[in-house]
Structures are given as structure tokens and as C-alpha cells.
Amino acid sequence: LQLWIRSHTDLPKRIYQIVSVFRYETKATRPLIRVREITTFKEAHTCHETFEEAEEQVKAALKIYSSFFDQLAVPYIISKRPEWDKFAGALYSLAYDTVFPDGRTLQIGTIHNLGQSFSKAFEITFETRDGGREHVWQTCYGISERVVAAVIALHGDDHGLVLPPTVAPIQAVIIPIPYKGYEEKVNEKAKALEEALKREGFAVHADLREKYTPGSKFYDWELRGVPVRIEVGPRDVEKGVVTLVRRDTLERKIVPEGELPQALTQLLNEIQESLRARASRWLKESLKRLGSLEEAKKLLQEGKPFGVLELPWCGRESCGMRLEEELGLKALGTPYPEEKPAEASCASCGGKAETFLRLSRQY
Fold first, then answer.
1. Cα(359)–Cα(178) distance, rounded to whole angstroms?
2. CA gyration radius for the chain?
3. What is the dihedral of CA 121, 127, 131, 132, to 10 degrees?
4. Beta bridge partners of 79
5. Distance of alpha carbon 361 from its chain centroid, rounded?
């Protein structure tokens, strides 16, 4: 950065990269969730003239990540990490967390305003507009394959993956159901449907494998999470219809072949919205705002998955760490944007609460 940044005319400087990161920190690994090698760590590093410009970059990162997770139908809460658990050297850290079906939370993205901590440590300076010298203001933010884990866990079921149509590499798979003597006719129809839908811009695939029964193909593509299955048999060819099967609910619907592009578009939109609504409902149900430490302990004693607890907090580090210790949970931080309790008392010391502290069992 010292080579690239000499003057205010070189700013802002924004660098984006996808890298592998190896970290030998634990033996308690979990596939995609906690790994020793992050194979696709996507990160951005930015440098700015002023603190205010760095703050604007943080807001831009929030907008980018929110849009990204929304497209995946992955719901999230944004928390400002507590001082004792923020990124070392940062002014503050913001984190995206989601709640898994077992009630544990997973951090799926982070954004840090680094201030001038690292630019001072590494002497990254620039010539100001008035001819002086100043250290740059920095931010950084990143996501990893944990996002893939979130998509699998939040949308999948006992049959396998359930992929949101917005990111599914194959949106619909066409399965011919041939009877003896009708194989060629049905397979030709499957090919014709594939070509027609591709011309309409859909990502489709006709499964014409001869060694697999239709039932085996159903199982295979359900496992892969393809959003829609299109079935076509001899009677369908005669009647000019096809059967659409949703992957998320396995509901079936017969539509005329001439209306297939419109019906498929509508069904993919319905599936995307259904996945989003179901996951968002689960997150909402998993957020539990309580008034006291005793309420929190009582809830934990029930032994059920609970998601995220929000307790009124005075903001003192000692009180926050005491709540972690008393409940055996880890603090996610405070709601972002900030939320102030109305005449509430700190769940730890009983003093005036200034905000809420989020706590959970984390991966």
C-alpha cells in the first residue's frame, strides 16, 4: 500500500481478492463451518482520506452484503461486536449472524472499521490537500464458505439440498418417464423442452440416462436440490402437458406445454419467496427479548433450541462478561442500528440499561 498511496489523489483505494487462508487454530473442525483452510475467503480492503469516508464505505459494505444474503434467502441479524470480542485493532466490528435449525448461531460475514490503527503501525500515509501528511483510514470486510453452510442448513431437508432458484446452477431438470415402446417419443419431447426452455433463458437439463429408472433420477435430483422437476410421459405428450414438481414442498402441478415458460417463471419466483419467508420466520421466532437474567436462566433450563437471547444491558464490559459466564453463552454484541430499551434495568447490575446484549450458543 505504501507503493500505491502517495497522495490524496490516490484515494480512495479499494482492493478485492479471493484467497485461501490456512489457520492452525483448532482440532474441533466442522465441514464448511469451521475449517483449517478457508478455500474461498472473499475479502475487501479499503483506504480513505477521512473517518467519514471510511464510515460511508462501511455503509456500502452493509448494503452489498445485505443484498447478497437476501438473494440467497438467508436471513440475518446485524450486531456490533462487544469491545472484548471485536477484530483486534478495529474501532468497531459489525457481524452478520444467522440461526441454524439446532438453535446455534453462525457468523456469516463481518465488516470492520479499522480507523488508523494499521496505517500507523505500517506507516501508510498520504499527502493531504493542504500539503501535510496524514495516515489513511481503513476498512475491511469478508465472507467465506460458511455462507454455503448456511444455505445448506437453512433450506435443506431430509431429501437433501434445497437450492434457491436465484443461485441454482440448474433451475429445472426434465425427467422423461418412458413406457415400453414409447422411449424414443418421450426422450425427443424431453430434448425439445430442454432446447425451448434454454432459448427462454432458463438453466435446464434433460436427464436422458438410460441406466437409471425415473424413480432413481427423482432421488438423485432431489438430493442435489434442483428447484423444479419437470416430468413428461407418453400420456403427457399426447395431451400436450407436463408436470411440475417443487423441490421445497414436493407439490405437483400439471400445466399445458404452451404455458410452460410462464408457469416455470412463476413457480421459481414462488419457491424463492417461500424459502425466504420460511427462513425469515424461523429467525424471527429464534430472537427472544427478555427482561431479566432469571428469565434467561429459566428458558435455558427448558433445554430447547432457543436461538438468540436479547437482554437489557448497561454497556459495561464487566456486566456483559458476567452475563456470558452466568448463562454459559457467548455475546454476539448489540443490535445494529442501535436500539435503546425503554426504562429497562441492566440484567446484570440492575443499573439503567443503555442497549440490549445479544447472547447465543455459537458455532
1. 56
2. 26
3. -10
4. 95, 335
5. 18
172-266: CATH superfamily:
Anticodon-binding domain (3.40.50.800)
> Going by C-beta distance under 8 Å and a sequence separation of 6 or more, which residues neighbour residue 28?
34
For cell 475491511, what's the residue? 140
pLDDT tens per residue, range 283-314: 999 999 999 999 999 999 998 889 999 999 99
- Cell readout for 262 is 410462464
Q: Please give the CATH topology (third level) of the domain spanning 8-155.
A: BirA Bifunctional Protein; domain 2 (3.30.930)
The letter for the amino acid at 21 is V
CATH of 288-360, one of 1.10.10.10, 3.40.50.1580, 3.30.110.30, 3.60.140.10: 3.30.110.30
- SS3 of 42, please? strand
Lowest mean pLDDT among 18-27, 48-57, 67-76: 18-27
Q: Are strands 37-48 and 13-22 parallel, antiparallel or unpaired?
A: antiparallel
Residues 6 or more apart in contact with residue 157 via CB below 8 angstroms: none
* Separation CA 207–CA 82 (nearest Å): 52
Other beta carbons within 10 Å of 86:
19
Single pTM value for the model: 0.93
Stated as kind and residue range, the H or E segment containing 64 is helix 51-71
294: cell is 432469571
Domain layout of the chain by residue ranges: 8-155, 172-266, 288-360
What are 343's three cell numbers? 426504562
To the nearest 10 degrees (0 to 180), the angle between helices 146-155 and 260-286 is: 100
At residue 247, does pLDDT exceed 70? yes
Amino acid at the residue 205: H
* Element of type H or E holding 113: strand 105-115
Task: Give the C-alpha separation, 252 to 243, whole Å.
Answer: 7
d(CA 341, CA 313): 9
CA-wise closest residue to 230 among 201, 200, 267: 267
Cell of 131: 500539503
**277 contact partners, CB below 8 Å, separation of at least 6:** none
* Cell numbers standing for residue 324: 456470558
